[in-house]
Amino acid sequence: MEKKTLTKAVEKVRTAQMNRFPRVQRGVALITILLVVVIATVLATAMVSDQHMSIQRTRNFLTMNQARQYALGGEELSRQILWDDFEQGEGRDYLQEEWANPNLQFDFEEGEVQIQIEDLQGRLNVNSLGGQGAEYQLARVRFTNLFAGLGIDPAHIDRIADWIDEDTNARNLGAEDFEYLALKLPYRTSGQMIADVSELRLLLDLEQEDYEQLLPNLVALPSTSSPLNVNTASAQVLQSISDGLGFETAELLVSQREELQGFGTVLEFLQSPELAGTGISGNGLGVQSAFFEVRVKARFRERFAYLTSIVQRNPTDGSMRVIYRNSSKKIIPLVKDPDASSEKTTDA
User: Fold this and answer.
1) Mean pLDDT, residues 9-30
2) Which among 15, 133, 175, 229 would be 20 to 30 A from 76, CA to CA?
3) Using CA atoms, how far apart are residues 129 and 156, in angstroms rounded to an integer?
């Protein structure tokens, strides 16, 4: 009897153990399934997030690319404006013409383009100091007058000429490779035409304050003989034509040309009462321009693109070509705001 009881007890224990193992196995399987679900969820979330970021990057790229295309379209619009100006056949360029309007703005689907066109021949060309003979002497006189009017050391005129010329012989107040190689951070002169006015920051001992005064009055054109347009030059630049022409007289000339809507010819300019007795020659002067700077600010949706181009227009047939492009200069053109008390152009 006791033996039967013991046997039943042993069988009961075995049965309990056998029933327990499947429950343990089921628990492990459930945990495994939960881990798989968690991992799958994390992976799916990561994939969705990566896909969303990829879509966003693609959208931003396409939007930015469209803004750049709008900027190029602004350049093309500027060329069309300059072509229309040439077709009018007046043979002169002045600041009351459509191309000189500081508020050129065009609206497109989901965007806009703002344009500024500036006549570069209304400034003194630094590369004219690399000319020869009478051409160089004329340029030197004008730069001397400009520097004197701005209170800048005229030694920099020789240094600009030395920077451009190919020889290593320093002029009286100039500087060549030897002086530049003696600097703490040595470098050589260019030995070729200046590509951009910002290159003047490399001139020996040119202070930032002097550079900022010169900047709005100078330009770097790929020609040593481009005439100065008296219809677009500022009073400061006009004053440089002759040492006998004061700044106040130059301002009177600017006011007179605004009333006339530009001088018709150089002779008309020279016959101005303000120039009587000054003995100014018409050499190196003109009323028509071939080089223009086009600055474009384009917007497509929430993206902006900027473009600065230099356009050369043939004065004979009006054909044009772009000789320079820079998409890094950010400008905000003048736009009329009826609620604003003033208008200004700033660099962004």
Assistant:
1) 60
2) 229
3) 11
Which pair of structure tokens corresponds to residue 281? 């020659």
* Tokens, residue 76: 């093309």
**Residues contacting residue 323 through CB under 8 Å, at least 6 positions apart:** 222, 310, 311, 312
Alpha helices, DSSP H only, in 88-205? 133-150, 155-164, 177-181
Q: Tell me the HSE value of 147 on the side-chain side, using a 13 A CA sphere.
A: 17
Report the distance separating Cα 262 and Cα 273, nearest Å: 16
Which of the residue ranges 26-35, 93-102, 165-174 would you say has the lowest mean pLDDT? 26-35
Q: Does residue 12 have a pLDDT over 80?
A: no
Tell me what percent of the chain is helix, strand and coil, each rounded to the nearest 5.
50, 15, 35
Amino acid at the residue 53:
M
E-strand ranges in 193-272 read 218-219, 228-229
Burial class (CB in 10 A: 0-12, 13-18, 19+), 147: buried
Q: How many CB atoms lie within 10 A of CB 263?
A: 22
Bridge partners, residue 346, by sequence = 332
The arithmetic mean of pLDDT across residues 205-209, rounded, is 93
